[in-house]
Automatic annotation (TrEMBL):
Residues 3-235 form the ABC transporter domain. SMART domains: AAA (SM00382). It comes from Oceanitalea stevensii. The keyword Lipoprotein does not apply. It comes from the Bacteria. Keywords: ATP-binding, Nucleotide-binding, Transport. Coiled coil: none annotated. This is ABC transporter ATP-binding protein. CDD domains: ABC_NrtD_SsuB_transporters (cd03293). One of its GO terms (molecular function) is ATP binding. InterPro entries: AAA+_ATPase, ABC_transporter-like_ATP-bd, ABC_transporter-like_CS, ABC_transporter_ATP-bind, P-loop_NTPase.
Length: 255
């Protein structure tokens, strides 16, 4: 599914009555099946754009569309993965994963089949009856990703989903996400503060300016004439092209 941000701007008023200009005149088109990573300094409006694409927020200027239809409210077609897992501690992992389908009115038998498939996909099949507090942070994030995948959205919006994890777990989940994106052909909008992560994961990297945020760099990740995701992450990082893109992206980030 194709996502479009058309001259999106957003201002909000703080509790003290101050007007904050979060995003300014931002236009981006993300074609069907593309994995786009967004980097930029804290407070530059990355999450504001994600909320607009999710339908959680109506911008004060411009708008967003999915396949040409205006985005005005949340939809099962757009799954959101947050920085923190947001799992219900009193429900089992399986029940958490099935929750979106339950809200959509999907029958219990189909919910069980689809959740089993995704729990297997993310490596949590053996922990389906566990409670979230019995899992590590990385496993909880896998459960959140499985919950989104179980609803089979065309678009996945991810707000620094690996930011709070240790380096090893983060690398493992990056590999899981690359595999999932290859298999599923999802359109992915992924926010991160890590330039390396953005280049390893993305088909394309967007860099945003300090507030009011706007896109100041839009660079494709095409390494050695081969689509970046076709390479192993270690091969990718070792390439001269990776270092060149990293320098280009890092130098565009104004803190």
């Amino acid at each position: 599914m194709t996502l479009t941000l058309d001259e999106v701007s957003h201002r909000y008023v703080t509790e003290r009555g101050e007007v904050v200009h979060a995003v300014s005149d931002t236009s981006v088109t993300i074609p069907d099946g593309q994995f786009v990573c967004v980097v930029g300094p804290s407070g530059c409006g990355k999450t504001t754009l994600l909320k607009v694409l999710a339908g959680f927020l109506q911008p004060t200027g411009g708008g967003a569309t999915m396949d040409g239809a205006p985005i005005t409210a949340p939809s099962p077609e757009r799954g959101v993965v947050f920085q923190h897992p947001n799992l219900y501690p009193w429900l089992s992992v399986r029940k958490n994963v099935e929750l979106g389908l339950k809200f959509q009115g999907v029958a219990a038998g189909e919910r069980a089949a689809r959740s089993s498939e995704q729990l297997e996909r993310v490596g949590l099949a053996r922990f389906s009856d566990a409670r979230p507090y019995e899992l590590s942070g990385g496993m909880q994030q896998r459960a959140q990703i499985a919950r989104v995948l179980t609803s089979d959205p065309g678009v996945i919006l991810m707000d620094e989903p690996f930011g709070a994890l240790d380096a090893l777990t983060r690398e493992q989940l990056q590999g899981d996400l690359l595999r999932i994106s290859r298999e599923g052909g999802k359109t992915i909008f992924f926010i991160t503060h890590s330039v390396d992560e953005a280049i390893v994961l993305g088909d394309r990297v967007l860099v945003m300016s300090p507030r009011p945020g706007r896109v100041v760099l839009d660079v494709p990740v095409d390494i050695s004439g081969t689509h970046g995701r076709a390479l192993d992450a270690e091969e990718l990082r070792a390439s001269e092209e990776f270092r060149e893109i990293r320098e280009q992206v890092a130098s565009a980030i104004v803190r």
